[in-house]
Every structure is written in C-alpha cells, then in structure tokens.
C-alpha cells in the first residue's frame, strides 16, 4: 500500500495514511486514460456548427455564360464553391460527437489517473478542511500553507463552506467524490483530498 503524509490546514504533517492499492496503486492504463479524456471533451462539444453546401445557397440557377467562345473558363453556376458567395465544399453539419465508455473502462481510467498522481507525489491528503464561515481568504491561506497553486480539491459531501470559499480562486476547482473525473485529475497539477473524501473514494471504487 502507498503510504502518504496527512497534513492539516496549516500545512503541518499530522500523520500518515495507507492508500488502498485497489484504487491508488493499480497498473496505469494510458490507453483508457486517453479514451476517457477524449470522451469527456467530445461529449462537451455542442456539434451545432453549420455551413451551406452549393445545393443550399440561394441563387445560381442560371449558367453565367455560354459554354464556349467567351475566353472564360466554363462555369455552370455562380454558386459553385470557387465563386464568391458560393457553397462550402464538404460543409460541416450539426452532429453528435459523443461516444460512450463502459463502466469498467471508466473506473479503470479513473484509478489510473489517481495512481499517476500518487506516483508523482502530487496527491495531498488533508485531515479536514473546515471553515466557520464562507471566506475566500481562508481557502487561499490553506493553499499557501500547502504550497499549492493549481489544484483539484476533493471534498466530502456537505462541506459547503469550503466549497464556496474556493469558488473565486483561479486555477482551483472543488469536486465531490462522485463528481471527480479523469480530465480534471490530469488538468490540475495537484489533487488535494480530505481524509473523509479518500475514504469515500476507496469505498466507491475499490
């Protein structure tokens, strides 16, 4: 089992925790990680782009000049793609870019991403992040104490004060254990998780 240090919000080490190898110590499958990222980005695409082909633009029904004898190249329509105002060749049309991964693949990709962060020593466990009030400065101080800038912070359910205190900090995103995803884990330099959140992740994904 991977053994990592546990810190408090002052940035001081207060103990250690053993991470479950079934979640944080798996064999990294880069192919599934790549698929998960591509899938998430593809599923976010609206797919609403549209341009008109030569059959959809208006006008151009008449042949602009006779076929021979003018000195011009032959032309059949003023709405052909080479004309100004003509249609677009292979014009984009609305489409659905999304594709699905099965549950086993998603879980394996998530475990691989978490394992990568642990191996890179960019997975920080905090005993708890508890605030009496919603204040951005409090959360900023926690990040400063942990010497972290761009981070994904995984919180346990119901920790509203911490969640709202972090929302105005650039390059910081909070997530609950049931909303973490591969893209966010890889996007942010460091993953910070409370002990309660780690326990929830192990319970769900082990």
Short description:
This protein is α/β, with parallel strands linked by helices and 206 residues long.
Tell me how many strands there are. 6
Q: Over the alpha carbons, how many angstroms does the gyration radius reach?
A: 27 Å
Helix content: 25-40%
Average pLDDT: 91
User: What structural class should be given to the helix and strand makeup?
Assistant: alpha/beta
Query: What is the assigned CATH homologous superfamily of the largest domain?
Result: Ribosomal protein L4/L1
Keywords: Ribonucleoprotein, Ribosomal protein, RNA-binding, rRNA-binding
GO molecular function, one term: rRNA binding
Subunit structure: Part of the 50S ribosomal subunit.
InterPro entries: Ribosomal_uL4, Ribosomal_uL4-like, Ribosomal_uL4_dom_sf
What do these coordinates show?
The longest helix is centred in the middle third of the chain and has 17 residues. It is built from seven helices and six strands. By secondary structure, it is an alpha/beta fold. Part of the 50S ribosomal subunit. It comes from [Clostridium] hylemonae DSM 15053. Belongs to the universal ribosomal protein uL4 family. InterPro entries: Ribosomal_uL4, Ribosomal_uL4-like, Ribosomal_uL4_dom_sf.
Task: Give the helices and strands, then pairings.
Elements: E1 2-7, E2 13-19, H1 21-24, H2 30-44, H3 103-119, E3 123-126, H4 136-146, E4 151-155, H5 160-165, E5 172-176, H6 182-187, E6 190-194, H7 195-205
Parallel strand pairs: 1-3, 3-6, 4-5, 4-6
Antiparallel strand pairs: 1-2
Helix pairs in contact: 2-3
GO biological process, one term: translation
Region (Disordered): 43-87
Family: Belongs to the universal ribosomal protein uL4 family.
């Amino acid at each position: 089992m991977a053994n990592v240090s546990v810190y408090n919000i002052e940035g001081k080490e207060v103990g250690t925790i053993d991470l479950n190898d079934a979640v944080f110590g798996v064999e990294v499958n880069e192919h599934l990680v790549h698929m998960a990222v591509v899938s998430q980005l593809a599923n976010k695409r609206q797919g609403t782009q549209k341009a008109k082909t030569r059959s959809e633009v208006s006008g151009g029904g008449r042949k602009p000049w006779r076929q021979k004898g003018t000195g011009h190249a032959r032309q059949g329509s003023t709405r052909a793609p080479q004309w100004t105002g003509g249609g677009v060749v292979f014009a984009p049309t609305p489409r659905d870019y999304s594709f699905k991964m099965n549950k086993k693949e998603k879980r394996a990709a998530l475990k691989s991403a978490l394992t990568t962060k642990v191996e890179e020593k960019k997975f920080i466990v905090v005993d708890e992040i508890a605030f009496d009030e919603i204040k951005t400065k409090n959360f900023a101080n926690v990040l400063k104490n942990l010497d972290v800038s761009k981070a994904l912070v995984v919180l346990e359910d119901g920790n509203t004060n911490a969640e709202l205190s972090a929302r105005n900090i650039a390059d910081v995103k909070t997530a609950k254990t049931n909303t973490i995803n591969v893209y966010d884990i890889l996007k942010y330099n460091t993953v910070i998780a409370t002990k309660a959140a780690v326990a929830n992740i192990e319970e769900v994904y082990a």
